[in-house]
Amino acid sequence: MTLFMDQETRETRDDSPSLLHRIGHLGSTVGRKAPKKRSTKLILQGGFAFLIFGFLVLTVVTQWSELQDKGVAFNLIWLLPAMAAMLLYYLLSASVWGLILKFMDSPVPPAEVQKIWAQPLLVRYIPGTVLFLLARVLMAEKAGVSRRVTSAGIVYEQAVSVAGALTVATYFIIAHPDLQDKTIRWLPLLIIPLMVGFLHPRIFGPVSARLLTALGRDALPKLLSFGGVLTIYICYVGLWSVMGVGVYLAARSVYFLDLSELPIVAASQAIGFLAAVISAVTPAGLGVRDAAFAWAVKVALPSSSFGIGAAIAIAVRAAQTVVELIYVGAVTAVTRRRGILVPARHPDPGPVD
Fold first, then answer.
1. How far apart are CA 258 and CA 245, in angstroms?
2. Is residue 227 part of a domain?
3. Alpha-carbon distance 41 to 296, whole Å?
4. Residue 77 phi/psi, 5° resolution?
5. How far apart are CA 225 and CA 121, in angstroms?
6. Residue 2 has what pLDDT?
7. I want to staple 294 with a disulfide (CB 3.0 to 4.6 A). Which of 122, 156, 281, 313 is the partner?
8. Is 7 among the domain residues?
9. Is 61 contained in some domain?
10. What are the start-end ranges of the H helices in the chain?
């Protein structure tokens, strides 16, 4: 009798889903069912709005006080084109993400792509990145893109974005005077081809399929060809160059910098982004990204003044925050006016999700 019960218990355990399966199921269902009570919906929406607005206000107030303490005076002649270049960066970044979805046979109309990419940006100011990623996944699902395709698209986007930023920063890292006696300065030459090569379908395909299977999900219906990966990589090198121009103009609004210093400033902002990616715990990379940028850009300053570098970093952060608000607000207003409605295609089939 005892032997029979032990055997039955083992069979029950064998039939029970694994931890990874349960995690996969949770990821495929979270956010689908809205609260039934209207009051609960309002509380949740208001709570998220309050958190996002609170972190944004805190960010801007902190930056302005530091700017005033350092006696920085803005020159709008340089600040306005800086913001225009940064705005172009955001518009093009969303378009490149839309190109990734198109390459994965899940195209979304351009205006809807801008909306899906833009609105979650504000969520980054809440500590952690889970809500930021989840918001985009949920919005893309409403447009008919399955969660696993959106998630894979984000993996492609983040990996190639990091590789593009590292490419822009490579020469600067190798030539930086503070790193001349460190072998680590040659590391980007190894990391870049490894990151891009990992996204080759013959490598990324089996790895992603194995991970999705462990999570109880089906394999991706479409992978980016390596030609598509290289196309996206080139796009991101261009995107980081555009942002570099915007950051240089913002820095020029605070302190005089010769045009010959533009490559250093452009590489410095890429280094700041990479530092924020490594930290991954601060909202929108606050603090970590700015300190890394200030450390890098001081090479272009007299006496390598970290103080002036910090003032420039604060000005760049302030300009970028304002541009993000303008971009998200403009995209939201335009899409609401057009009343964009995208018919849902087919998310992941039946029992899989």
1. 13
2. yes
3. 45
4. -60, -35
5. 28
6. 47
7. 313
8. no
9. yes
10. 2-15, 19-29, 38-69, 76-103, 110-118, 130-142, 147-175, 188-198, 201-214, 226-252, 262-279, 288-297, 306-338
Give me the count of residues in the chain: 353
Q: How many percent of the chain have pLDDT more than 70?
A: 68
Buried-exposed string 2-17: b where 16+ CB fall within 10 A, e elsewhere: eeeeeeeeeeeeeeee
Q: Identify the three-state secondary structure at position 220.
A: coil
d(CA 65, CA 75): 18
In terms of residue numbers, what domain contains 155?
43-340
68 — phi, psi (to 5°)? -65, -40
Residue 129 inside a domain? The answer is yes
Range 292-296 contact pairs with CB under 8 angstroms and sequence separation of 24 or more: 293/268, 293/269, 296/172, 296/176, 296/264, 296/267, 296/268, 296/271, 296/272
Q: pLDDT digit string (tens) for 137-192?
A: 888 998 889 888 888 888 889 889 989 998 988 877 787 777 778 888 888 888 88
Q: Encode burial over 121-157: b for 16+ CB neighbours within 10 A, e otherwise.
A: bbbbbbeebebbbbbbbbbbbebbbbbbbbbbbbebb
Tokens of residue 170, six digits: 């490579």
Interval 284-322: pLDDT, tens: 556 677 777 877 887 776 666 667 777 788 788 888 889
pLDDT at 220: 75
C-alpha 332/C-alpha 222 separation (Å) is: 30
Concatenating the DSSP letter of every residue in 315-350 gives: HHHHHHHHHHHHHHHHHHHHHHHHT--------S-G
pLDDT digits (tens, 9 = 90+) for 243-254: 999 999 999 888
The dihedral sign for the CA sequence 262, 265, 267, 273: negative
Q: What local confidence, expressed as pLDDT, does residue 97 receive?
A: 93
0.85 exceeded by pTM:
no
Please state the domain count of the chain.
1
- pLDDT of amino acid 43: 46
